[in-house]
Design goal:
This protein is 64% helix and 2% strand. With 352 residues, it is mainly alpha-helical. It has one domain: Farnesyl Diphosphate Synthase, CATH 1.10.600. Strands 1-2 form a two-stranded antiparallel sheet. It starts with 5 loop residues before the first strand and ends in a 32-residue tail after the last strand. The N terminus is likely disordered. Bound molecules: ligand 3E9 and magnesium ion (MG) (4 copies). One magnesium ion binds next to helix 4.
């Protein structure tokens, strides 16, 4: 996406990003996350750097936590769900999820014995306890439950080699992209806790979901090359749009970018209002969502995970300053069209 007024990617505000990156690699080795082959790949994917991108502030030992945790998530998502047998076996994936969820709630329980992912999760929970309030920790646990629910849902499609419809994919992508597990850690990193009266208001929840959607639409766009070449089952917006509307891959990619831009343009409007009307903490929270979107973009076009130099992906190294759409309109995706009701004077909908 080169353009005259392009944003340069790769801006890293933290001088300690290389140290965070190195320590995430060491943590993966210490806890033996994933098979040796998977781990050899994961430690080259700049996952610690990703944490440094989305948390430009905060103490390095706190930023280390989302770095190690995202690597752990890929140990589950790649190791078990997408490349392992459990990804085709929702019943057994549910059993593993139940064990891991108990560990994250009560790290002292002996569930799953010495399983490396269990040990890694115990370590993460204990470190989070040092820095987070009980409320932030509880939301992190709840978000992890959403993630596990959604990968079990995804496994039911993988088991029958099915492709979800656009509405179901868009809804479940809010969870199986593991975006909602990150904001409690961003609050921890910035050292504040958003009041639940603000967090749980419909307008803030809508804006938060919009940010999650932009991030996972971006991931579906950036990861399509590696996913469609993997020889494995994959479910992403491109595949879903090809099937939903009978599009070619190129047309589906264009449509995915257009839909993503509609949501980004929408995100900017209520966010501006909330920034004016909300508390200083809400302003910090909304700024964190923007850092998360931008950090995920910059990481997505630069990580070896997606650039795959042996079979290079045609990823951009700059972003357009201007979105593909100037004004947002509901996308005709029933589970999310209510977001547009949050705009003043937009009670009745026309689709875009
Ligand atoms: C993402 O979807 C799967 C999660 C387990 C990734 C964990 C990463 C984060 C929480 C960072 C923010 C989310 C992003 C960038 C989606 P998917 O499509 O399996 O990821 P992949 O890298 O394989 O394309
Ligand atoms: Mg996945
Ligand atoms: Mg994946
Ligand atoms: Mg992906
Ligand atoms: Mg590839």
């Amino acid at each position: 996406m080169p353009g005259a007024q392009a944003f340069n990617a790769f801006t890293l505000h933290r001088p300690d990003h290389a140290l965070i990156e190195q320590r995430t690699g060491e943590w993966a080795e210490q806890f033996r996350i994933g098979s040796p082959a998977l781990r050899r790949h994961l430690v080259t994917h700049d996952i610690g750097t990703f944490a440094a991108r989305i948390l430009p502030g905060g103490e390095p030992q706190v930023v280390q936590i989302p770095g190690d945790f995202v690597l752990w998530l890929f140990g589950v998502d790649d190791g078990h769900c997408e490349e392992g047998d459990l990804g085709r076996n929702p019943e057994d994936l549910a059993v593993l999820s139940a064990g891991l969820l108990r560990i994250v709630q009560n790290p002292e329980v002996p569930t799953l014995g010495t399983d490396p992912l269990a040990a890694g999760l115990r370590d993460l929970r204990r470190r989070i306890d040092v820095h987070a309030t009980p409320g932030r920790t509880a939301r992190w646990v709840d978000a992890l439950r959403e993630y596990f629910f959604s990968v079990i849902w995804e496994a039911s499609y993988r088991k029958r080699n099915g492709v979800a419809c656009l509405d179901a994919h868009t809804l479940m992508r809010l969870y199986d992209g593991a975006t909602s597990v990150i904001p409690p850690l961003l609050e921890m990193g910035h050292g504040y806790e958003l009041d639940s009266l603000e967090r749980d208001s419909t307008a803030v929840r809508a804006a938060t979901e919009m940010a999650y959607s932009v991030i996972t639409w971006d991931n579906d766009i950036f990861s399509h090359h590696k996913e469609c070449r993997s020889g494995l089952y994959y479910l992403d917006a491109v595949r879903v749009l090809e099937r939903e509307y009978g599009l070619t891959t190129a047309e589906a990619l264009t449509e995915a970018i257009r839909q993503r831009d509609h949501v980004l343009v929408l995100f900017e409007e209520p966010t501006a209002t909330l920034r004016r009307q909300g508390s200083p903490r809400l302003r910090t929270f909304l700024g964190s969502l923007a850092d998360f979107i931008r950090g995920a973009q910059d990481w997505g076009i630069s990580s070896l995970r997606y650039t795959t130099p042996d079979d290079p992906a045609a990823l951009p190294d700059v972003f357009e300053r201007t979105p593909q759409v100037s004004r947002s309109a509901p996308l005709g995706i029933p589970s999310i069209d209510w977001w547009w009701d949050q705009l003043p004077g937009r009670g009745s909908r026309t689709t875009g």
